[in-house]
Amino acid sequence: MNTALDSVFKYAVAIVAFTIGAFHLLNVSGVVVLSTRDVRIFHLLMMLVLLFLTKPTLKKLAGNNIDRFISLGLVVLSIACSVFILSRWKDIAMSGGDTDKLDAWVGLVLILLVLEAARRGVGVALAIICLVFFTYPFYSEWLPGVLYSRGYSVERISELLTTTSQGIYGIPLGVSSTYIVLFSIYGAFLSTFGAGDFFFKVANRLTRGMRAAGAKTAVIFSTLLGMISGSAAGNVAVTGTLTIPMMKKEGYEPHQAGAVEAVVSTGGQMMPPVMGAAAFIMAEIVGVSYTKVMQVGLIPALLFFASLFFVVHLQAVKSGIEGNQPDTNDNEPIWKILLHGGQFIIPFITLIGMMLNGYSPFKASFYSIVILLIAHVIWNRRLSLDILGKSVTAITAGAKAVIPIAIACAAAGIIAGTLGVTGFGSKISGLIFLASGGITFIALIFTMLTAIILGMGLPTTAAYLILATVVAPALSKLGVPLLTAHMFVFFYGCVSTITPPVALASYVAGGIAGADINRVGWTAFFYGLTCYLLPFMFFYGPPLLMDGSVAVVLQAAVSGLVGVFCIAAFVIGYLLSNLRIIERAAVGAGGVLLLMPGLITDVSGLVALGVVLQLQKARATD
């Protein structure tokens, strides 16, 4: 009986996932044209159905008939509520917001469904945070001081969050139903048609014969794959099974191999042209093009990955890990690998080119998928039913990958709506402002700590959504440019996945590496130290965000590259030989100075590096 039900659930999930994926492809192509609200309602409905069909009520009830009965009941409720809202929203909009009690109670049920979906699909932490914000208006009138707010009824809040665009069906869910789902499907197409194997071959060939080739392959491979996956923990799960054993075989300790993979997979979400789901949401909230977000994120992302290269290299030298011996049975030239991978390179170039020429990201991703299919037929010189089967698989997989992100977006709408109606968001910003005494650097420290704490245990998208509504306004209040403020919290939302004590990416990597997860977490924290410094550097040095003349930007990029090398040497404790404590401190300080754009800081940083090098050379000749 259970086996039969399992099959029914499995096929139901596949059908629903394919339906929602195909719907979004048809919508962006213009074949199906619906209003924005209709698309968002249908998107959330299907994602709720998928989540309740795939995630058990409790882990210990997984596969139990009681769990299936509860899940099916929640599916029915999700359909009923969504259909009701779908039938009512136009009348409410045309009447200027005239609602009745039934609207409020249906909305309340939907809110509770979203909270339960968040608990099952994203984690208890997000569900609790959303519940606290949702209930805040009900008891805020009895709270003291800055926490005080005029009280609101349950009906008023549920109507606000479900019948307007300020709550569940707000901007975050809108981004999920356009940009994110299309890019997820695009990434699934690349993966299904073999882009992962191609990326791995390219990375492996580029590092062939190098010292720590396995670790450097991991950096390149996870960067390439991380750009299209947008999930740190998911990227570790996919790439780590290949790269972590390679690094262990080379001589890296298990916790070191796991840490390298965790950090580089986290950084994949920062690398243009596809910076993960959070970057699309950032563009929408800030009100700039996604191309602009790509532009300002490029140099920090490149510096971050350069620092990882330096870290794995210096760790290899310090640990005595030698270069690998090239496989004599694998002498395929790099140009042949690239030529065979043209079917993936051309769509990728198309994607970037279209976005740079003003096309919306979801339009660019749709046409890139079309070109990928055409290129696949040309490269394989045949048109078969296999391409249809792979397309169905890709659409289904892409839609499934969006489930936790869509739920997180809907849940974040609860937070945003509550903050808006109560004014609590501006109060949190005010608290940070008052605590800092108006001193920008102290405000940045408080913002960093708040961002990391709020982001712990959450996927990057959920973390950024909370930070964008709660923390980023505090920086804007200090006169920080809006995009810079959001980039600042975006980076800390990303690194929260490698920040102990709750580090999701490190936990996954630790499991694959067979290492203690806490040791992996702390090692990843130190390996990723550059990423904790970069937001401060680009705040005080706008050229790192490509703000300035070409010469100034190039100077900042070059000095930043030397700076991250110094930071890597500080982290590993090795330059030409093991660094003494004073030398380590000096090279670390030099790295920070070099990361901070400016002639005086650059010269000071180079002097510090030069002095340490001379001391090490002198000691080597003694």
- Oligomeric state, counting identical vs distinct chains: single chain
Report low-confidence residues grouped into runs of 5 or more.
none
Class based on secondary structure composition and strand pairing: mainly alpha
Give the radius of gyration. 25 Å
Task: Give an overview of the whole structure.
The chain is mostly helical and 622 residues long. Among the domains are: 2-169, no CATH class; 549-622. Helices cover 77% and strands 0% of the residues. The chain contains 28 helices and no strands. It has helices spanning 2-29, 36-54, 65-94, 101-121, 124-139, 154-163, 171-192, 195-206, 213-229, 232-250, 254-267, 277-286, 290-319, 334-340, 342-356, 361-380, 385-422, 424-436, 440-455, 460-470, 472-477, 482-495, 504-513, 517-527, 529-540, 550-572, 581-595, 599-621. α4 (101-121) crosses α6 (154-163) and α26 (550-572) runs antiparallel to α27. The radius of gyration is 25 Å and the shape is globular. The chain starts with a helix and ends with a helix. The model has no long low-confidence stretch (mean pLDDT 83).
